[in-house]
């Protein structure tokens, strides 16, 4: 028996906050001039923009802020066992931190962000950071509250052990999270060697040049224009000529849960040339696609049927400064295509006209996220109370009728003439739920859903990403087909999912994907094709791969302050066999964000591989400091300790790993069977070996181990039955054949042993050496009869 190495964690760490890239560097001589240069010619637009939430996305704390917003001082609020309190003094804002009556620290608060639903505030920190203070102001309820606590997910089983992040965590740093959606023309100027920021920006808030690009050339053209003369060019980006896709893409960098793949973005560019997008593989969405956490609109918008069936885009309903164009007539945008609904509003809504419902009431209900932020559902889908029953997701019926049950609402919905409209969503949502829980009984239905050209892009993409947790090779054909999907997002996830499936068909498909017209597809294809031995490709093919690889590396270095980029860079070097570089990247990721466990786990495996067990154990112990029950860390630690002969410690770690995932942790179970057997606990060895085999019945090694301990424990009949099952499912696994033959011979049943070997000779695909050995056994047994 030998201990098995655990596989390295290979999942790409995707950012979960809305983080944008800085804008593409301006052309020489075309500088950013700031919004005030727009006033002279565009005074009306400027006056509309100046008081908007875009313009006031970030505001200095000064006398003007105090006078306009008139926020009250706070009462002491408990955060992490200390009391925090803010006071406004003349033109300044100060926060006090106290431990009981003792003053611990005083913080100058210099910036405010938001104000639509919530005001958050920033204080200067070490290394050039601006940090969100731990208390914020609810503009709707007119009260101060614990900001980190409001960020928790209080939604039962999906987040059973959730707890608030420390308020000084990097996730609450302006420089790493919220910066580019609250200010304009930013440069982080991050120094990786010292982990220090020297962040600069043109002006706070989202200014005109965020959407129109640098205006220096535009200003010069029109200032030098003679009276009556027409300009040859505008000298900036005109959104008037944008397509539907370009309008949406220009808003999405701030209104999407995404991760950047380039160092820069300019309005008019394609979204998926610059960003990746989070979809329903993330548990911040309910399985049916409703938002459970803050998801910033874009993913829901992509599920909106009106987007495909019309020219609707963000600026259809919102002004460029973020206002609602249809505030006084909320049905206006919908009636362009759905005017027939007004002819019998009561029949359509099921409510009397006096109820005052608008289209938005049922199709864009608001949800409250992170404790206080309000967001409208941009998927435009109708209420689905049965999804509430099945998945716990919200529905508009019960958001109004809070005294009624979803069963009540569902009965009414199903009694309507089109009452079956929920069925399609319920069907794929159930598949999403099963895939999240790694239940694969209906994997064929998942395949069919992905292949169906009518399937929503987000749904298909989510299932493809969830299949990363499914190890069966049958998925390869589905993913290859998905590389031809019309959706660039689906193609990109399919390309990523093919990594590690080393067949000629896959390599050919990935080579084509490396030449896709969308950058996200190309970099995910490069990521996947780099798992192949590179010496199998021709010089021409290597040129294609190198071009996509260059873009892939750029995507990993676009944010040097982001730990997940360095983690993914470690995976890149690891796939290329560059162990030193991989370890350096993993260690950098861990240095930037010590609570990130993935780089620590992966580096520990590499350290073990190169023989540095001390460093391997050190990194695993760091993981367990943050996550004591982490499955991968306990598994790897258990294997490492077992190799060193520290069996009691190994058993404890492996038990913890198994408890974290009792139905799908065969490595821990098998190794526990070995450990307990060594101390004479054969019933325990059988128990753990059974768990391993049950978890991976397709792996004959686990069946062989179970049979071995069954026989050792005096369970001869059970051992023979297990080996027969292994042979029937994996006839080429000759160790099972030999072991079962030995049992028959020990029992004196030469005929059965002989027949077993004869059957083995009929197995296709066994080596000539094995076939000769089996034939020799057959000859010897025949001679003995």
Describe the 3D structure.
- By secondary structure, this protein is an alpha+beta fold.
- Among the domains are: 22-239, no CATH class; 440-561, Alpha Horseshoe (Leucine-rich Repeat Variant), CATH 1.25.10.
- 46% of the residues lie in helices and 10% in strands.
- It is built from 36 helices and 20 strands.
- Strand 7 (111-114) and strand 8 form a beta hairpin.
Task: Record the SSE blueprint.
Layout: E1 22-23, H1 43-49, E2 58-60, H2 63-69, E3 77-79, E4 82-89, E5 92-99, E6 102-109, E7 111-114, E8 118-124, E9 130-132, E10 135-138, E11 143-146, H3 147-150, E12 183-184, E13 190-191, E14 196-197, E15 203-204, H4 208-212, H5 216-223, H6 244-251, E16 258-260, E17 264-265, E18 275-277, H7 298-302, H8 305-309, H9 314-317, H10 332-338, H11 345-349, H12 359-363, E19 366-369, E20 373-376, H13 385-391, H14 396-400, H15 406-414, H16 423-436, H17 443-451, H18 457-466, H19 475-482, H20 488-497, H21 504-513, H22 519-529, H23 539-556, H24 563-575, H25 579-592, H26 597-609, H27 613-626, H28 631-643, H29 647-660, H30 666-678, H31 682-695, H32 700-712, H33 716-729, H34 734-746, H35 750-761, H36 768-784
Parallel strand pairs: 1-17
Antiparallel strand pairs: 2-7, 3-4, 4-5, 5-6, 7-8, 8-9, 8-10, 10-11, 12-15, 13-14, 16-18, 19-20
Main traits of this protein?
36 helices, 6-stranded antiparallel β-sheet, 4-stranded antiparallel β-sheet, 20 strands, 785 residues, 46% helix, alpha+beta, Leucine-rich Repeat Variant
